[in-house]
Design goal:
Layout lengths: L10 E7 L8 E7 L17 H14 L2 E7 L1 H7 L1 H15 L6 E5 L11 E4 L7 H22 L7 H4 L5 H10 L21
Parallel strand pairs: 1-4, 4-5
Antiparallel strand pairs: 1-2, 2-3
Helix pairs in contact: 1-4, 2-3
Length: 198
């Protein structure tokens, strides 16, 4: 059972999607849910089917007090590393909200203070708190939509299916076609990438 609140009613939940991908942005969402919000389907986005996530997205966006979603793209990921890019995406998502939160719930164990607002890092928070679960759904659905869009440009990588994650099919396509402008150049794209042919 997800908890609706941690400290007060104007707390934001924040989470990211796409951290372990080879291509595409890391995407973060932040959301403040109204007091008493309940939804029997809502859970950690990884525990939900794509159909349920897509069903929830408009419900969460409409019901929210405010929300923000932000992509941080490949060049910036390569420049500052994926952890910093994930935190930056969360900060930017928080900044996009029309009302600042009085407290921030963060999924995971790493975060940097945001505008002197108190925060709590909660491991597996997306399976414990409604606001973090809602943020995980928004981050995942917005990122998936972006990956489906750029799939049209490079269909050979099948991003509409693998969403940029390091599947066997995705790695095989990289072997065959090389890297695109959407691939993260700082990531180890292929298992044998660091070996030398001698």
């Amino acid at each position: 059972m997800l908890k609706s609140c941690y400290k007060d009613i104007f707390e934001a939940g924040t989470d990211e999607a796409g951290r372990g991908c080879l291509a595409g942005p890391v995407t973060a969402a932040a959301i403040i849910l109204p007091k008493g919000f309940k939804n029997p389907i809502l859970n950690d986005s990884k525990q939900l089917s794509e159909i349920k996530r897509e069903f929830l997205r408009p419900i969460l966006e409409k019901a929210s007090v405010t929300f923000g979603v932000c992509h941080v793209f490949e060049d910036e990921i390569d420049e500052i590393n994926i952890l910093n890019a994930s935190i930056l995406a969360m900060h930017r998502a928080l900044k996009m909200m029309t009302q600042p939160p009085s407290f921030i719930l963060v999924d995971g164990n790493r975060f940097k203070p945001y505008e002197n607002i108190g925060h709590e890092c909660i491991v597996k928070g997306d399976s414990k708190f409604m606001s973090i679960a809602a943020a995980s759904v928004l981050a995942k659905t917005h990122r998936d939509a972006y990956m489906e869009k750029i799939h049209e440009e490079f269909p050979m990588y099948n991003w509409k299916q693998n969403k940029g994650y390091p599947t066997k099919e995705h790695r095989e396509a990289i072997k065959l076609h090389g890297l695109t402008k959407y691939h993260r150049k700082s990531f180890r794209q292929l298992p044998e990438q660091l070996t030398l042919d001698i």
